[in-house]
């Protein structure tokens, strides 16, 4: 994929009818902080007063509005823009970290402040190669779900850097207003740069300090029913709110005549296939670094279970997932 950055004197004006979405979050000027437009030449993701990102098959072209905000280009590109480009390319961009275990990808999804960064960093430190830190790009082919590798960078708090790296080494802030630092993943542990089949997706539920998750002291791993698993995958999309506006938006490079379904329906069917093919489990554990070794052991023990067990559960859940997808498709027509 090609990336091009240019500076423009004035941003282009787009007709209101071309607007796909406007985020509820506003900037200090009262404008939606993220906007999307569908134009004949491609899809544009606009960050008002910062930059426009033009998304085309195999290319992202960035027009910078304000040179003093050039540092925001990387932040936007490696977050919203890349997730949007992946979704428009037919992949599912989950807000999840991924590590490697036994030549397979293991994903960890959580709500904000849910412990994902700590979990992933701790596993990488213990020898699980990093595959993706914040955005896990998934695709399905002939019954197997694959996870692509992400950018080899981790966003960690100073406390996490001190614990998993050992020194700050003048790591830059991800954003002047954020506490997290941008850390090369190789400073934490090994990095994997290949596409791997997915073994499992864990939904993290970390207890509050002094209050174990689920009311239990021990680490618990339990399967998630097909219907709930589907809901959770939809909820953990990196751009879940923005993608709700894309019922009739085409994928990148897809002509009107070949568009059988919009992006929203297309990605829902992909998530349904992922739910059919990959076990989704809830991982409950107490808060605190001292519990992480026990959590690691529980994860390894769970992954060591025969794959046949997961296969049986997937076949039992298949009818439920397909029925949900069918109802969703009808609602989109």
Write a structural description.
By secondary structure, this protein is an alpha+beta fold. Helix content is 31%, strand content 27%. The chain has eight helices and 17 strands. The chain has helices at 71-88, 116-125, 158-164, 226-235, 240-243, 263-277, 292-303, 307-332; strands at residues 2-7, 19-22, 35-39, 42-47, 51-56, 59-64, 92-94, 96-101, 104-109, 130-132, 136-141, 144-148, 153-156, 181-184, 196-206, 220-223, 280-285. Strands 7, 8, 9, 10, 11, 12, 15, 16 and 17 form a nine-stranded mixed sheet that branches. A hairpin with a 2-residue loop joins strand 8 (96-101) and strand 9. The relative contact order is 0.13.
SSE sequence, one letter per element: EEEEEEHEEEHEEEEHEEEHHHEHH
What portion of the residues fall into strands of 2 or more residues?
A: 25-35%
Mind telling me the C-alpha Rg? 20 Å
Arithmetic mean pLDDT: 86
Distance between the termini: 33 Å
> Helicity level, as a percent range?
25-40%
Give the uncertain stretches in residue-range form: 308-313, 328-333
**Largest sheet: number of strands, sense, barrel closure:** 9 strands, mixed
Number of strands: 17
Gross morphology: globular
The total of helices stands at 8
Coarse structural class: alpha+beta
């Amino acid at each position: 994929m090609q990336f091009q950055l240019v500076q423009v004197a004035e941003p282009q004006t787009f007709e209101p009818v071309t607007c796909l979405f406007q985020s509820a979050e506003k900037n200090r000027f009262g404008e939606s902080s993220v906007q999307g437009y569908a134009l004949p030449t491609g899809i544009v993701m606009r960050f008002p007063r910062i930059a426009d990102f033009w998304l085309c098959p195999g290319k992202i072209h960035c027009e910078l509005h304000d040179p003093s905000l050039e540092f925001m280009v990387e932040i936007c590109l490696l977050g919203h823009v890349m997730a949007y480009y992946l979704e428009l390319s037919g992949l599912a961009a989950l807000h999840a970290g991924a590590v490697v275990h036994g030549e397979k990808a293991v994903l960890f999804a959580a709500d904000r402040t849910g412990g994902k960064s700590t979990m992933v960093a701790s596993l990488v430190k213990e020898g699980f190669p990093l595959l993706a830190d914040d955005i896990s790009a998934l695709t399905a082919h002939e019954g197997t779900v694959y996870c692509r590798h992400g950018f080899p960078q981790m966003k960690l708090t100073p406390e996490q850097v001190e614990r998993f790296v050992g020194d700050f080494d003048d790591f830059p802030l991800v954003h002047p207003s954020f506490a997290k630092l941008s850390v090369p993943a190789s400073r934490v542990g090994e990095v994997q740069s290949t596409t791997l089949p997915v073994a499992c997706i864990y939904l993290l539920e970390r207890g509050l300090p002094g209050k174990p998750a689920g009311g239990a002291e021990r680490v618990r791993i339990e399967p998630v029913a097909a219907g709930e698993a589907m809901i959770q995958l939809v909820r953990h999309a990196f751009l879940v709110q923005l993608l709700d506006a894309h019922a009739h938006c085409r994928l990148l490079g897809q002509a009107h005549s070949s568009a059988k379904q919009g992006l929203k329906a297309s990605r829902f069917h992909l998530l349904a296939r992922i739910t059919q093919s990959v076990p989704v489990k809830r991982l409950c554990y107490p808060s605190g670094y001292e519990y992480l070794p026990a959590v690691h052991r529980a994860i390894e023990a769970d992954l060591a279970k025969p794959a046949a067990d997961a296969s049986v559960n997937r076949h039992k859940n298949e009818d439920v997932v397909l029925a949900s997808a069918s109802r969703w498709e009808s609602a989109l027509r």
